[in-house]
């Protein structure tokens, strides 16, 4: 057993450690074009070496990593289950049916608001903004441009809808990651987000509706939509019953059924529907859980919508989160984060300032590290104790992590989210960003309401005001 005296790092050393990690990530990603996983491991190694001088043995550092990972075990399991759900639901025809029937309700006058709702429903059902943009988002881009609506406006609408579900879906990786990072219950986290997300969403919906009236008389070419629907109907049984897996999962979520078993049930129901209604074998249905849907139709537009999902396709997110959690565990164990937050929070005098600080530093985490997951994990660890000391519920912190992290990632060109959205939708971030109204309104509204003392979630331990 190690009996070395443990010394706390100074504020300057803590700041240098954090800046070193950020510097490694920025230089590696943008100059050397190295994968972020390798850079994180390098940052982890350097942090461990520096930590040895403060009296920590390697075994103790490993235990710090283990503690961080154990707290996030549910989220790591959910990352895998997200892949199983997407793979089984596409095989079952659930996602294809959602796309098919959703496209039927699009009209020129209400294209933007209906498109927003359609993207929202898709991202809620799949839990992925990237999957939504890469599926229905692509179809909406082709349809909207054909109707005469500027591409940046359509892309902004798609991003808003896609990230609404990414933020609110119980099967979203960022939703679960934010809850775990802040120490909040998943369903309490989602309920806390509704306070600021729903008003922001309604404002965005109203804005898109008014903008859409300008293009009410558009009569563009709908060939892409017809091609998608025709190919989907030719390759899947689109009986409305195939949507049953989504209904089952949502019902379980409404009744607050535990997330992991609920997602397993959602996956298995997709497997059963795939076997019964799509006529695939048990082996094919189970294979889709691991590798996703792989049957290509020969139509590239449709294949881009459907060939995805599976456990293996979630391994990038899983491994990134695993390494980041190890790094976060060391930063927390040695006290780098505690020292930093103590220095920063010394000047925070009210809830409004605290909310602004959390959203601001999470946004800066996105901008400096280029990755939403890292910003959420590190800031969740950074502020968890501060919120507890101020008698603020952990779900308030998790809400702010999503507002400053999940939503702003797509507004920064060099983040993975921004780069993906720009390349997938064919519109630069600087052009669609100003039309991604939900992503802009939600963080700003949260800050404004906090200064007004609205939706401040306190524990029941005390009614004492924050000073």
3D architecture notes:
The protein is 73% helix and 0% strand. It is mainly alpha-helical and 467 residues long. It folds into two domains: 194 residues, no CATH class; 240 residues, no CATH class. Helix 1 crosses helix 17 and helix 2 runs parallel beside helix 16. It is globular and about 70 Å long. The two termini are 42 Å apart. The C terminus is likely disordered.
Order of helices and strands: HHHHHHHHHHHHHHHHHHHHHHH
Can you tell me the overall shape? globular
Overall pLDDT confidence:
86
* Percent helix: over 70%
Summarize the structure.
The chain is mostly helical. It has helices at residues 11-30, 36-52, 58-71, 73-92, 94-104, 111-126, 129-146, 151-168, 173-182, 186-213, 223-235, 244-254, 259-277, 282-291, 300-306, 315-334, 336-345, 351-369, 372-389, 394-406, 416-425, 429-432, 437-451. The chain is built from 23 helices and no strands.
Which helices and strands appear, and what pairs or packs with what?
Blueprint (H helix, E strand, L loop, with lengths): L10 H20 L5 H17 L5 H14 L1 H20 L1 H11 L6 H16 L2 H18 L4 H18 L4 H10 L3 H28 L9 H13 L8 H11 L4 H19 L4 H10 L8 H7 L8 H20 L1 H10 L5 H19 L2 H18 L4 H13 L9 H10 L3 H4 L4 H15 L16
What keywords describe this structure?
mainly alpha, 23 helices, disordered C terminus, 467 residues
């Amino acid at each position: 057993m190690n009996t070395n005296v443990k010394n706390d790092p100074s504020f300057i050393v803590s700041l240098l450690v954090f800046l070193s990690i950020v510097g490694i990530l920025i230089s590696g990603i943008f100059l050397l074009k190295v994968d972020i996983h390798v850079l994180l491991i390098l940052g982890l190694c350097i942090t461990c070496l520096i930590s040895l001088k403060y009296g920590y043995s390697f075994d103790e550092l490993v235990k710090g990593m283990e503690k961080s990972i154990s707290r996030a075990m549910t989220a790591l399991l959910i990352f895998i289950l997200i892949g199983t759900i997407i793979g089984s639901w596409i095989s079952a025809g659930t996602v294809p049916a959602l796309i098919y029937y959703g496209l039927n309700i699009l009209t020129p006058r209400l294209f933007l608001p209906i498109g927003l709702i359609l993207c929202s429903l898709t991202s809620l059902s799949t839990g992925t903004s990237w999957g939504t943009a890469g599926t229905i988002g692509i179809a909406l881009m082709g349809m909207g441009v054909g109707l005469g609506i500027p591409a940046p406006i359509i892309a902004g609408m798609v991003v808003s809808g896609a990230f609404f579900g990414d933020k609110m879906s119980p099967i979203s990786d960022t939703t679960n990651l934010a809850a775990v990072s802040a120490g909040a219950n998943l369903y309490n986290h989602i309920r806390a987000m509704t306070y600021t997300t729903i008003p922001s969403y309604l404002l965005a919906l109203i804005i898109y509706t008014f903008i859409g009236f300008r293009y009410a008389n558009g009569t563009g070419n709908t060939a892409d939509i017809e091609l998608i629907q025709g190919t989907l109907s030719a390759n899947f049984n689109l009986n409305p019953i195939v949507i049953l897996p989504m209904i089952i999962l949502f019902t379980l979520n409404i009744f607050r059924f535990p997330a992991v078993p609920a997602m397993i049930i959602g996956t298995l129901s997709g497997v059963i529907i795939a076997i019964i209604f799509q006529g695939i074998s048990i082996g094919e249905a189970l294979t889709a859980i691991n590798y996703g849907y792989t049957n290509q139709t020969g139509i590239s537009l449709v294949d881009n919508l459907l060939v995805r999902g599976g456990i293996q396709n979630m391994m990038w997110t899983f491994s990134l989160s695993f390494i980041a959690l190890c790094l976060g565990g060391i930063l927390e164990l040695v006290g780098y984060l505690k020292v930093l937050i103590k220095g920063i929070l010394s000047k925070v005098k009210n809830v409004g300032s605290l909310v602004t600080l959390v959203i601001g530093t999470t946004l800066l985490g996105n901008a400096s590290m280029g990755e939403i997951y890292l910003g959420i994990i590190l800031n969740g660890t950074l502020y968890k104790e501060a919120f507890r000391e101020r008698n603020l519920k952990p779900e308030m912190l998790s809400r702010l992590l999503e507002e400053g992290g999940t939503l702003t990632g797509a507004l920064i060109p060099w983040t993975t989210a921004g780069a993906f959205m720009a390349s997938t939708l064919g519109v630069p971030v600087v052009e669609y960003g100003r039309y991604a109204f939900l992503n802009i309104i939600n963080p700003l509204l949260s800050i404004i309401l906090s200064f007004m003392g609205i939706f401040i979630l306190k524990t029941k331990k005390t009614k004492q005001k924050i000073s």
